[in-house]
What we know:
The complex is a heterodimer. By secondary structure, chain A is mainly α. Chain A has helices at about 5-20, 25-40, 50-65, 70-110, 125-140, 150-160, 160-165, 170-180, 185-220, 230-260, 275-280, 285-295, 305-325, 330-360, 385-410, 410-420, 435-455, 460-465, 470-485.
Amino acid sequence: MVFNSYSFALFFVLLLVLHNLPLPWKVKKINLLLASYLFYALWNPPFILLLWLSTVVDFYMARLIAREQRSAPRKLLLTVSLLLNLGMLSYFKYGGFLLENFTALLSAMGIAFQAAKPDIILPVGISFYTFVTLSYTLDVYRRKAEPEPSFLNFALFVTFFPHLVAGPIVRPEDLIPQFKEPHRATTQQMTWGLFLLSLGLFMKVVVADTLLADSADTIFGVPFPVQPLDAWLGVMAFSGQIFCDFAGYSTCAIGISLCLGFVLPDNFRYPYASIGFSDFWRRWHITLSTWLRDYLYIPLGGNRKGAARTYINLMITMLLGGLWHGASWNFVIWGGLHGIFLCAERLIRDWSGKRQRSFAGQNRSDQVLAGTVAQASMLPVSWNGRLGNFGLALLTLFLVDITWVFFRAPDFGSAMRILLSMFGVIPNGAALLTSLDILKVSSVTVILIACHWAMRNSSLVKLGARLPWWLLSLVWAVMLMLLILTQKSSNSFIYFQF
Amino acid sequence: MTPLLKSCLLTLALVLTFVVGWEWYWRSQNLGLSYNDDESLWAHTRKAIYRSSPSRPVIIGSSRVKFDLDLATWEATTGEKPIQLALVGTAPRPLLTDLANDPNFKGTLIIGVTEGLFFAPDGSFPEREATKRVNFYPRWSLSQQISFHINRVLEPWLYFLDEERLALRPLLTNLPIPPRPGTWGGPKFPKEFSIIQFDRQDVMTDAMVADTAIQNKVKAVWLDIGAHSPKQTMPDAMVTGILNSVKKSVDQIRARGGQVVFVRMPSDGPFYEVEKMSHPREKYWDRLLAHTRTPGIYFADYPALSKYRCPEWSHLAPKDAATFTQDFIPILKQKTGWPITIRPTQKPALTASLPPHQ
């Protein structure tokens, strides 16, 4: 079930009514759990078995791990849990990819091997709920958390429908404590939740699907070069589309959850106003980047084992982060590029810091460079003015857009063709986008960047509190009117495929 | 009352006012209620193919069989309503392959042939669009089916739920923005051209039938499409390849006891002249029938079918579609020998005269 559907509207209204009836808390939690299973099963019922398997195994493994004091059996139990979760993920998500590359490798070695094409359907949301259950087991293993005694609470934590299929990737501490006490939305939470739901649907249905998707699909769908203007607009269209699609989903999820009285973590903080790539990853898909930081980058050693290992760890984390998005070398390249940019930024920052210290040694009064790299600037210059920072944010977005080419293109050849078209390397490309497409993509891009920049150090909650109530209402009403004008959208959320 | 709650209530009032006003506006435009001919409606119709018979055939093809075969008249004549699976602007071959590959389909099939679309190469836009629809059917989730049934309740009451003509996307597309040189945004049909009924019948609106200015706009669209269509003739090998794949599908259906007929619906004026030049009958239609050893009905061969005029050169007006259908059924019966029950002649049922929510 997708949030932008009539079936979800009916489901949500019924669930809200049920959740607000004077029933015991345990009954309400059972209702939520059953509703979550129904939400998932309406896609493809058999895949609910995988969800159950993951839930049951991780619940009991965590209990056994917590009870066990000896190191070796604890490791064995953790391995069983990891093998099951990552094994399922590998089979469903990477089975075809691994076989394809194995075949290609044998072929390169001159061995003729033709495997039957595996007919594997990817269960929706498997990458997300696998990471949710893994974080629980790993936290218990590392004795950061106690195992949850209630199976109901744990099952609801894994399955809670707002986050189940496309995040935010919740941690045990985000949600399980909220299930222990009765929760019902206050009027404030309910209205704000409905506002967030409207905003998320507006971003998805109006902006991503109606204003941007066609242009991106056109440019990334043709097998021939296009004019530089078309290539750039196609990439900017995708850049806006993926943000509005994914952040739209997260905003809906947070809003829906709030309507039921539960708070989910933020997943996006205006990423297209990021200054540098470490700033970008503090703002884009936050729950994934923090997951990768806590369960991959830091266990690998983080930045505690010297400069060289830090760069290696960064690259490993980003390459695997890329691969998490899908079984394709393009995703690996996308992750690799982000890794390279993060490493470059770190190098520049270190170099800039050394220069700063050297300057400071020569002239104590020279404070110009102090604080330049307060967040993560890309350049070793004192661009700490608002205009300078805006320039750096645009530079970051430019580089982020380059990486999106690999993320969206169906294969490496297409990605390279679009990149070469963008920089005018291939002459006589086709003009494909119409005047209306150009108008839509450029105006949405400008508005998106302006909104992100204006909100860079703020939040929707603060903005909502600051705006006069009638103005907020006007904005809200316009979003809903455009949503009604756009009507139903058949497009699924992009991140469901991950 | 908190400011947020006040915002919420005002929003509700504004949105309700907008919805009422928007609906009232579109009703006042006399465009007629039109259903969304989307994947779900197609999939819903596709589910019925297992109950097909000579009196209740499955129809695939492009727009002409959707306009010209009047389902209500067919039902009034034979007692059964055909299953309309044709898709506007597409090549029917992916649908034919889909039906041929469905072991449970053993019924009767009418295939509309508009040569420019029927012989569109694999990978072309008309072929891809039909393939998308075919691929959607097995993935039609329970959730989408529930949404479809909710939509089915709402659509007859709300004119503005018309994605094809009144949603944000078509409204933006029809803005008078100067075109970018060298690009084409696709055909822009006037809103008054046609409506679609729940049984997937396409019907010209009264305004379209009455107003030659609107008819001329549609004619201009055909010229526009013609100007942007590939000009080179198809290599013979490609035609043969298509004929082979069609034959394979037809044979598969026949092997299970099914029956197939090709039909060429009327076209008119310069459109027909261009079609005759770009797709000569002997090179396409005649070869199709001979290669597949399948009966076919070409409108020009029958005075009863060639007497009709198309207001915009390509489709019949509703009244003509009704009588055309009445004329067509006996010819179909005679040509194929199918056991179609024909009731005594009566006034055509005229789909277009039905209330819009029927």
